[in-house]
Amino acid sequence: MSLILVILGVFLCFSGLLGLGSVIYFGFKFRKQNEILSEEKKKKTFEKLIVLNYLALCASAFGLIILVLAIFLS
């Protein structure tokens, strides 16, 4: 049981870190072409990046909680 929780926790942590990396990458990419886009498109893109950032942080935090639970169960 604890092995399954450890694997799940590690998977969630790594997927959260991958999500944070992608948000940072797309943020820098979007910042380079900032002058070309309209204000409405900028606002929508930033809102999407903020939502993805929160989802990635929640996945990492949930994975860490599962890892701690697995450590206490073993």
Describe the structure.
The chain is mostly helical. It has 2 helices and no strands. The chain has helices at about 1-30, 40-74. It is rod-shaped and about 55 Å long. The model has no long low-confidence stretch (mean pLDDT about 90).
Lay out the secondary structure:
Layout: H1 2-32, H2 39-73
Helix pairs in contact: 1-2
| Distance separating the two termini | 9 Å
Helix content bin = over 70%
Report the biggest beta sheet as strand number plus sense, adding barrel if it closes: none
Low-confidence stretches: none
Order of helices and strands: HH
Number of helices: 2
Could you give a quick summary of the protein structure above?
This protein has 74 residues and is mainly α. Helices cover 89% and strands 0% of the residues.
Considering the chains and any ligands shown, give keywords for the structure.
74 residues; mainly alpha; 2 helices; 89% helix
